[in-house]
Amino acid sequence: QVQLVQSGAEMKKPGASVKVSCKASGYTFTTYYVHWVRQAPGQGLEWMGIINPNGGRTSYAKNFQGRVTLTSDASTTTVYMELSSLGSEDTAMYYCARGGGQNSGWYWYSDLWGRGTLVTVSS
Amino acid sequence: DIVLTQSPGTLSLSPGERATLSCRASQTIGNSYLAWYQQKPGQALRLLIFGASSRASGIPDRFSGSGSGTDFTLTISRLEPEDFAVYYCQQYDNSPLTFGGGTKVEIK
Question: CA separation (Å) from A11 to A14, A48, A71, B10, B90?
């Protein structure tokens, strides 16, 4: 089954870091880029960045540069999103989403989404 | 950054009615690189339309997309009970990728 399965909910204190995983299955992992998008409670969607699991090339949204790191592990077909220096404004649902591949643009729509990981930042 | 403005914020309709959702961009979206997604509570987002007017795999033909440049529309020809949800447009022409604020289609 083609799917992205994300890790479970996290509770963090202000100033801490969080690392969320996204395990891909049912397709060739290194063929598609993976985006990360977040959604604060009751809010819209915010794009964070993209990674190419084949080689590790990344691009980040300016709002997150310096605080977010995307990595991938082809041996486990898993992509990771680490966000540091957490504040209450980072409380959100974090989604991974499959993007384009070598036959499409670097920035592309997402045809497959994970169900999300809730990250709560509170003292 | 390209700002996408969706209207209306909420659409109250009955099953069987037609829904027309608008997405307006702050600048021209090249190549009509605009997508539409459906979001339901507790479920993964679902791609409906890409390239402004191409239906994604498995999407019923009651969903259609149109538009170009700065004005785009998602139309649901006859609402089914499972179509009541929140809909987002997204542009993937430029970084950062951006989304509209969403339109909630609710049962009247």
Answer: 10, 20, 21, 32, 29
The pLDDT tens digits along chain B (108 residues) read 999 999 999 999 999 999 999 999 999 999 999 999 999 998 999 999 999 999 999 999 999 999 999 999 999 999 999 999 999 999 999 999 999 999 999 999
Contact residues on chain B for A45, CB-CB shorter than 8 A: 88, 90, 99, 102
What's the token pair of residue B40? 């339901």
Minimal CA–CA distance to A107: which of B25, B64, B45, B50?
B50
Question: Hey, are the CB atoms on A59 and B97 less than 8 Å from each other?
Answer: no
Residue B88 exposed, middle or buried by CB count within 10 Å (0-12, 13-18, 19+): buried
Q: Do A111 and B56 touch (CB under 8 A)?
A: yes
Contact A120, A41 (CB under 8 A): no
CB-CB under 8 Å, A47 with B96: yes
Contact B48, B107 (CB under 8 A): no
End-to-end CA distance of chain A: 39
Q: Where are the beta strands (DSSP E) in chain B?
A: 4-7, 10-13, 19-29, 34-39, 46-50, 54-55, 63-76, 86-91, 98-99, 103-107
Residue ranges of alpha helices (H) inside B1-108 are none
Contact A45, B88 (CB under 8 A): yes
Would you mind telling me the total number of residues written for chain A in this entry? 123
